[in-house]
Amino acid sequence: MTVELLPIPRGLVADGTFERPFEPICAVGDVAPGAMTRFSRGDRDFLLAHTPLGLCLTDDRCPHMAAPLSIGALSGCVVACPLHRGTFDLASGDVVQFPTTGGLDADGGYHPPWTPAGAPSKDEPTDLKARARALTRIRRMRYYPLRIVGDMIEAQLPT
Ligand code: FES
User: Fold this and answer.
1) Ligand 1 atom closest to Cα of 86?
2) What H or E segment, with its residue span, contains residue 56?
3) To test ligand 1's pocket by mutation, which of 64, 79, 114, 138 has the most ligand atoms within 8 angstroms of CB?
4) 62 C-beta closer than 6 A to ligand 1
5) Of 12, 44, 93, 102, which sees the most CB atoms within 10 A?
6) 91-139 confidence digits (pLDDT tens)
């Protein structure tokens, strides 16, 4: 079986990775098509996703409030965060659905909170927590270069 690599979206390679050596992270067979897996190095957690367009490696931290995406859901190339219903396109690094909390997009544009269909709507709170949510900016996703050598997946990881 030939396994493809998802091209890293333009400008979203994680800093400091290109000069790093490739190192094995797992076997190709360890992450089935449509699956995601988490692995850790030191204090960093990584998400390896096997999308229909290929494998990609990013942080296992939601770009919103850092929840582990690996326990969310992968549908095609879109990963859904388990915490605030944010969804993110791994093929582009773009936000597909903004988190329910609202907040700032990567460019600083404000998005109001929203309520899922069928749930009672709530007044927008005005307390300090609400202000913190409103000022939380979704970070751009960052990706780590991958290659396949034999039956192993190798990655350039930060120090
Ligand atoms: S932490 Fe993922 S959507 Fe909020």
Assistant:
1) 3
2) strand 54-59
3) 64
4) yes
5) 93
6) 999 999 999 999 999 999 999 999 988 887 766 667 998 999 999 999 9
